[in-house]
Structure formats: structure tokens, C-alpha cells
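Question:
Now give any protein.
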Amino acid sequence: MNKDILLLGASGLIGGYLFEELSRERRVVGTYYKNKKQGLVHFDLLSSDIRSMPLENTGYCVMCSAMTKIDACAENSSVSHRINVDGVKRVIEKLSQRRIVPVFFSSASVFDGVKGGYKEEDIKNPTTLYGGQKADIEDFLVSEKIDSLIIRPGKVFGVKSGEGVLFTNWLEKYLRGEEIKCADDEQLSPTYVRDVARGTKELIDRDARGIYHLNFPEHMSRYQMAAFFFSYLKIKDARIKRCSIDEFHSIEKMPRNTFLDSTKFVGETGFEFTPLERCYDEIRRTFLYRS
């Protein structure tokens, strides 16, 4: 019989798709912090006790809950450390006591972005506080020899209204008549959020351990992505402005090559990522037919 899953952060983009995917074959208890949704339980990494959750038949705890805005983490370093490091460690320690496997969502930000194409075993060298906090938890899991699964996803995007990352964000700007600024000196891999959910389920079902990169196998700049996206939709009047990542004036130095190598994951599972064109078609059905 499949063990239950506790999903921290089920109200976010990745968490919402994970809740849907994992619930197909298991009982999943999902939590929210600010974004209250029906069927989810409130949980605060700073003040809630994980032992208050229904853990009797729980085998895994998928940890998506975090303070994720890179600039916000830097501006509020004390708060972000208490959430992303202290709070997460406290939960992991209590899970470990109950032999519940933490499935920790990390980030490509644990790397410096100099070369790109990082493998799971490559040396971490974060350039942002957020990346350093993710690296701290990875190191903690390894140093404490905690039975765990670490997932580093690519640059995640959705296809629905309100999932304003990459393509949907650009299309919403186009429909409002706005200019679309896209960096052409940053390489990343756009990864469909449903693929991240499907891939995570696959790894849990296989009882996998260690680090895995769930990353679309191709990479390109945001400018290249936007140009191809609007060309595919046959939209010729989108005002796409090519720019540098430095023009966005981030507080910390942003890594420029954040794409990962997912060879290990694909090789072990045979997983097939959704082609971008299929995602574009879904976005077109969602937005343009509605409009």
C-alpha cells in the first residue's frame, strides 16, 4: 500500500500541480501559508509544529514551502534565513525522527551560472543569498546522513491565466499593449510545471534517493524564447525588447547560465518532457480563444 504524502506549500505553482499529480494514487495532505485554498491546511515554517499534522501513515514530505523571491531574500536576510534554513531544518529533523523521507525542492541557484549544463555532482557555488540557503539545506541533508530526495527543477512555467512566468507573463503583457523586456545574455531551460510534478511522482514511486535535475533538455535566452513563442502563435506585433539581465537591477549578482543537465533523471526513468510547442498550443487555447 502506498504511503501518504505531506506536501508543504501546496498552494504555490509547483505545489498546486504536485498536489493534483500525487493525489491520483495516494492520500496527500497539502498545506498553505498565505494563499489559502480549499482543502489545504495552514502551516507556517516559522511557528507551526510539523508534529501537529496527520503523520501516522506518511512516508514522504514534499517541501515546496519557502521564501523564493531572490531580491526579497536579500533585503530581508534575517527573515529569509529563519524560513528557508532554520524552519526547514527544524521540520526535517522532526521528519527524520519519524522516518519520513523529505523531498526537498532546491534550485539551480546553488550554482554560480558561469558554465551552465550543471550535473548533480558539480560543485555548488551560489552567488545569491537564496541560492546559499538552498545549498545549506542540501549540505545539511548530506552531512546528517538523512534519507532524502533532492530535486532541482529548471525554470518552471505554467500555461494557465494567473501562472505568470515566462510565456503566460509575456502574453498577458502583449494583450495589455505593453513592451516585453527580455534578457539575451541569460541562458535557462523552460520546464513545464506539470512535467516537474510528473517527474517528482515518478521518483517517489521509484523510491529514489539523492539529487536529481528535473530540467527541460534544451536551453535558450529569454529573448530567444519570447521571439519563438510569438512567432509560433503568429503574433507579429509583439514589442519584444532585447536587453541585458543587468538592466533589471537586481540586488545581488544573478547567475547567467542556470540550465541543468537532466541526463541522470531521464536515463533512469525514461521520462519524456513535454515539447514546448504543445505548451504553446495550450496557452493559445487558454488566452487567445478566451480573448
User: Anything to note?
Assistant: The mean pLDDT is 95.
